[in-house]
């Protein structure tokens, strides 16, 4: 059973969703943006306001939130995996990396 609308996509381009409440590992969550709805089984517990992957993201690939690049993956990230400082390298404000 999924927890409907417990997570949101901020833009149709996003490959991460943001949780609206603390969520436990192994539950299925529905992330949504407009008509786009994705059911994802969480691999980790995700605290309120944090992100999880809705697509597989390879090391070095761009991570999108708000339809904008917020960083690059520092390792491979699986669908349902917590996305945070341990696997995301921020690119905002860096002059050596372009979006």
UniProtKB/TrEMBL annotation:
SMART domains: SAF (SM00858). Keywords: Hydrolase, Lyase. This is UxaA family hydrolase. CDD domains: SAF_AH_GD. The keyword Transcription regulation does not apply. It holds the Pfam family SAF. InterPro entries: SAF, SAF_UxaA/GarD, UxaA_altronate/galactarate_dh. Residues 14-89 form the SAF domain. PANTHER family: ALTRONATE DEHYDRATASE (PTHR30536:SF5), ALTRONATE/GALACTARATE DEHYDRATASE (PTHR30536). One of its GO terms (molecular function) is hydrolase activity.
């Amino acid at each position: 059973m999924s927890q409907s609308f417990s997570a949101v996509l901020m833009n149709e381009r996003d490959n991460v969703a943001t949780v609206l409440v603390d969520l436990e590992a192994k539950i299925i969550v529905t992330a949504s943006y407009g008509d786009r709805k994705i059911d994802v089984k969480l691999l980790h517990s995700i605290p309120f306001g944090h992100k999880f992957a809705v697509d597989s993201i390879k090391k070095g690939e761009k991570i999108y939130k708000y339809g904008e690049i917020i960083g690059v993956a520092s390792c491979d990230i699986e669908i349902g995996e917590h996305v945070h400082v341990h696997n995301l390298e921020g690119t905002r404000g860096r002059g050596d990396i372009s979006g």
